[in-house]
Amino acid sequence: KTRIQFGRPIGVNQAIKHMCSDMSVRTEAAFTQVCFAAVCLASGRHDALAQALAARTVAANAATDNGATGIHIHGGMGYTYEHNAHLYLERAHVYRHLFAEPSEVLAELLAQDLTREGVAA
């Protein structure tokens, strides 16, 4: 379904195209990081846990940013129950809190790196 605003589809507006391309880039970056983390875990690399934590952080940020951008693109319709845009943002926030905040993940990752290098006792 194509949303029409002021007599034309919103997808013809350049600003909307930029937001959609940003969402695509964030999604692809998260997917690539998750795949790389899976390869690291499967091959037993020493940095597999760090890659998995990084994947969780990148995916959480992409999900919440893309959900918010989707609502922004849809305007007031994104907040209503007539459209599913609000569901994606709600799910992203729930998953983000279930699987730890990205700042907590990064702190854990930094602590592991410092411990491995012998900086922390």
Automatic annotation (TrEMBL):
<dbReference type="InterPro" id="IPR036250">
    <property type="entry name" value="AcylCo_DH-like_C"/>
</dbReference>
<keyword id="KW-0285">Flavoprotein</keyword>
<protein>
    <submittedName>
        <fullName>Acyl-CoA dehydrogenase</fullName>
    </submittedName>
</protein>
<dbReference type="InterPro" id="IPR009075">
    <property type="entry name" value="AcylCo_DH/oxidase_C"/>
</dbReference>
<dbReference type="Pfam" id="PF00441">
    <property type="entry name" value="Acyl-CoA_dh_1"/>
</dbReference>
<feature type="domain" description="Acyl-CoA dehydrogenase/oxidase C-terminal">
    <location>
        <begin position="1"/>
        <end position="112"/>
    </location>
</feature>
<keyword id="KW-0560">Oxidoreductase</keyword>
<keyword id="KW-0274">FAD</keyword>
<dbReference type="GO" id="GO:0003995">
    <property type="term" value="F:acyl-CoA dehydrogenase activity"/>
</dbReference>
